[in-house]
Amino acid sequence: FPYTTLFRSNAGDLPIIKGKNLTVRQRLEQHRSVAFCASCHTKIDPLGLALENYDAIGAWRERQNGEGRKGAKNDPPIDPSGVMPGGQSFKTLPEFKRILVDEKPKFYKGFTEKLLAYALGRPVGAADRELVNGILEATAKEEHRLQAMVQAIVASRAFRTR
pTM value? Predict the structure, then answer.
């Protein structure tokens, strides 16, 4: 499916530096020191670090675990703080959630664009602005539920004639 090439990345994994037992935050800070990497990581790192209290299986943790750490009392505490690309700073997960709730319209728009791009098998561009706005208007009365969005997209002329 050719659409998948739009989302491929050659980013790779964060390097593990031998002899140094760095936290994820510290490894990301080193990674961001490369200008090419910083252009993306400045936008995405605050989102991931805000959720760092959740481990790989979704269990809550207060201290770093994994990569040789056990989450013991001498392991570094999790620091979920960050600064969003828009400049809003947060120190805790509840503060992060508040920022996201304030950004609901942006989230709905972005989610609609991504869902529409997937449904159409092509990027969504400026010519689709009216379609995206129409889907948002049509789904607002149903609180932008996923089912309503899918139905609005499937009912759209763009989807039916793709």
Answer: 0.64
